[in-house]
Amino acid sequence: MAAPKVKQDMAPPGGYGPIDYRRHLPRRGLSGYSLFALGVGSLLLGYYTLVKWNRERRTLRMLRENLEEEAKIMRDVPGWKVGESRFHTERWVPPTLEELYFLRPRGELEREQFGLQNYV
How far apart are the first and last CA of the chain? Predict the structure, then answer.
């Protein structure tokens, strides 16, 4: 009996395609530029909130000092209520600049009203 003929496996005509050996992971999260922009944005928002809060605190401190001074000045006037609102409402109305600075030197009010216009 004759040995059967062996057929060898060969590559297809033109060869095999390239083997993809790199890792293909999906992108996760934001890019570095996006994270940097998010950090700078949150920093600026925090600074803005801090400045706004400090201005409100300064306003309330001035208002309290004004009420204490008003109590000293008007203590001899019968029927005077310190800090009574001139608006007929129960809600808190933010004080005007004139209300805040009426017991202070005129220059402070002008500096607050006109700000940096002196330098322009």
Answer: 113
Q: Which of 110, 101, 94, 108 is nearest to 56 (CA)?
A: 94
| 8 located within any domain | no
In a domain, 113, yes or no: yes
Q: What local confidence, expressed as pLDDT, does residue 120 receive?
A: 55
Residue 95 is assigned to a structural domain of this protein? yes
Give the DSSP letter string of 25-84: PPP-S--HHHHHHHHHHHHHHHHHHHHHHHHHHHHHHHHHHHHHHHHHHTTTSTT--TT-
At residue 91, what is the residue type?
A: R
Domain range for 93 = 50-78+89-120
In whole angstroms, what is the distance from residue 70 CA to residue 86 CA?
15
Write b or e for each residue in 60-85: b if 16 or more Cβ atoms lie within 10 A of its Cβ, otherwise e.
eebeeebeeebeeeeeeeeeeeeeee
pLDDT in tens, 21-58: 888 888 888 999 999 999 999 999 999 999 999 988 99
CB 107 within 8 A of CB 91: no
